[in-house]
Predict the structure.
Amino acid sequence: MNAPEYDFIIVGAGHNGLVAAAYLAKAGRKVLVLERRPFVGGSVVTEEFAPGFATDAVWTGGNLRPAIVKDLGLPLPAPTRGRPLISLLDGDRLELGADPKQAAETLRRFSEKDAKRWPEFAGFMERAATFLDEAYATVMPRLPKGTDWRQGLGLAELGIDLRLMGRKDMLNIIRMVPMTALEFLEEWFESEELKAALASVAMHGVTLGPMSAGTGFTLLHNWLNRSGPAHVNAGKAGEITGALAQAVQRFGAEIRTDSEVARLLVGPYACDGVQLASGEELRAGAVISAVDPKRTFLGLVGAVNLPPEFVWQTQSIKMRGSVSKLHLLTDGSHGIPDGTLVLAPSIKYLERAYDASKYGEVSEQPSLEVTTVGPVVSVHIQFTPYALRNSIWNEQRPRVEDLALNSLAAHFPKLKSSIKDRRLLTPVDLESIYSLTEGDLNHGQLMLDQFLFMRPMPGWSNHRTPIDNLYLCGSGVHGGGGVSGAAGRNAAKVILGGARNLHRRN
Amino acid sequence: MNRYDAIVIGGGHNGLVAAAYLARAGKKVVVLERRHLVGGAAVTEEIFPGYKFSEFSYVVSLLRPEIIRDLDLPRHGLKILPLPSTFTPMENGDYLAAWDDHDLTRGEIQRHSPKDAEAYDAYSRLMARMAKAIKPLISMVPPDPSSLSPRDLMGLLKLGRYAAGLKEKELYQLAKLMTQSSGDLLDEWFETEALKGTKAASGIIGTFLGPRSPGTAYVLLHHYMGEIDGAFRAWGFAKGGSGGVSGAIASAARALGVEIRLNAPVQQVIVKSGRAVGVALEDGEELWAHAVLSAADPKRTFMQFIERRHLPDDFVNSIGAFRVRGSSAKVNIALNALPDFTALPGEGPLHRGSISISPSVDYIERAYDDAKYGEVSRRPYIDIIIPSMIDPDMAPASQHVMSCFVQYAPYDVDGGWDDAKRDSLGETVISTIEQYAPNIRKAIVGMQVITPKDIEAIAGISGGNIFHGELLLHQIFFLRPAPQWADFRTPVRGYYFGAAGAHPGGGVMGAPGMLAAKEILKDWGERR
């Protein structure tokens, strides 16, 4: 048999696939990236739905890890602080600017005490987020036994970092992770409006409420991804993946769009290539999947090629998407200010919105997050569960649109009349268009039992799989969730081998 | 006269266990109990003439076997009668039961789902294995990972060795169990709603979380840690009710020389130059000792008995943030006839076991939904046992007592608890049971409704939380009751803490009392 044409084939040209490809190509490997859609980006994409109607379709903006920007020489601006987070209240607004001092000033109106604590809170969150970032940049080894002891170095280093943060920060971070967002925020603040606004950050993209344990962690995770409470670089998601694609090509790798992978070519527990939907077969030394773990294993590999217990574990991965996106092209007179606007007037409001999703229903009073880029308004709607119990998605589409628009109309009376075109993406659309299984933005819920060495599932957080020469590099693995690119970078490090790579962060 | 080696505040089972262990080491010990009887939340009282109730805590399983052995409790009257079955009536008129016999139980599950019957054994094995795996942690003083003291470093080393002793798979299973929701855990294994509901119920007891909230699988595991005669996950009923357990421990303690003073409420712990040297009773009497151990809940221990100025700010903040949200109520009912379940009519083995109103995970989750917005569950989870069927001495001949553990009834119910709310809680419980056993209303001779507020007032537990503080992930092990203070010591020298609010937590377990007593002895051994 001939030698394979490529060293590596990467399935999926989302940001993590492209990051992995760029690192491997930079290291001199022959790499091919295959993308199902006509353009790169995956769910980090600025998409043109109609002429003049372009917006970040799934993920709003984001920041790649600075180390990736530096390593790959990406022409991206330095990380910016976000625009303000604005909570829409009944006849009022709570505005949290990016500058802690300014934010404290505006908080005064709600609580003198909270205003005083805000700079301390912002400082703690930044330190805690920095630690989480380090954890994400560390490859999670298989835990015990028989493995190379050097694999544990990354973990040891991480433990030392945590201890060096000081006793108080260390214990506070450990405590925060399993807490409910509400419990955590109650320890800091008294203003209901402030607590709810911040809790909405914790719930972004996850199917949990502010009273669910583990939302302390999601608050931290989302805070890290945004470098604060509000979205950054809205409207520029496509620039990120565009810059990555250019880097991939600059380093000599090939990207083929309109090339859907139908299945992976798996021999007896080893993978040596892919078969495209067109029937074409491509061979490589190894295949790296940037697709979510459920789709990778149950779809592309096939359950018959995997050990039964592993199949069971894969089936147990919780995806549970509940986000719909409503993009609106307006004539510009929508009246919505710049920034990240949230409809999260109270903790109970958010919790009730979540309650519906537990029983497979669309929230009557959804939690909304709105960002605008010029005339285009994007509404992130929660909770609209993928798995509806007593209806089907085609029936619910108009209702979701109405619920979102009516909730916003109360705050922005001009919005409805300014709409010229619209595009609703339900969890079912997110699955069919962006290959996000069950519409889960993070390739797997950000829950404590799918965190650290348990992401995507216990024992397989090190990017390897039960099949030789098949690796995972997407958001579903440790480091993933959000737009950081850490999972793609870690995968490349593991694949390029050398234990030295594993504990070195930068 | 009033000088002791150690004073124990609170004559609940943990206080008594601690006192007994100290006396066993030759120390002079006094236990101060606020009420007229020992037991705390493990008491038996004759609420209606002739009808005796385990007023609060009503089953045993978690009591550590080493305590039973060390204190020779059977000789002091401890007798645990098995509670052999669990019966779950379903909303469709059918039922699900786990009987005393493995084959019968399997056959019963098979009737609902062959797949579940298949999974049942593997699931039971997993839980037993996990309970065994976690056992060493229960009898360990949690090391503080942020500390560099030799004692904590040794503890961490011990913890590391413990983890290294587990198989890779066990470690992962344990990590998952610690972080999952009980609903998700059970969804992975089973499809029968009544089975999942009944199992998930263990994950919410004493906790203000629903079965869909992460962290509840750990609470479920906590309830699997019980052993009776070496058999894991065996629940039993103490002869004479829960007061029988406390009575046996008290008797053992007295035999070892412990003085137990009833009707002796403590006003304050006396602190001199940063050291606890005694206590002042509410009537002004003062008692002196080298050490004071509180077996009250953390809030009382640190916010009531000790003056604020003796405690550092961080510690006070941590105790202030410690969650003690009561979520459970108890309804004790005297009956002149057994409840007759339409799903399985007539008197039968079901009446000698536990009867669980938990038809599905959603049912319990909806019960929680009501409670989290400040209401009593419209359709609550109820765990029923009929002690008179197990121990006939609990009720007059041919009469019965029925114990109903109810969740959720929030401590902070909207508008606060009053007589009308208490009555309506009782009515909710009756009407819920009535759906499955329509004769219940007519059979009632007397009924006592205990709200979380009542648990607080009678048993003296802040917030009415049956575990003295929820078993949340950020409130267990080295974080229980507060970071840096999980070793049973407190910021006040000579003041120790050994009750359910300390590691390893609640249930009639006795481990916190025993571990705290051992730490006191360790401190003395080092100094003398």
Notes: The interface with chain A takes residues 145-147, 163-164, 166, 168-169, 171-173, 175-176, 179-180, 184, 188, 209, 212-216, 314, 317, 321, 323, 362, 365, 369, 372-373, 472-474, 479, 483-484 of chain B (CB under 8 Å).
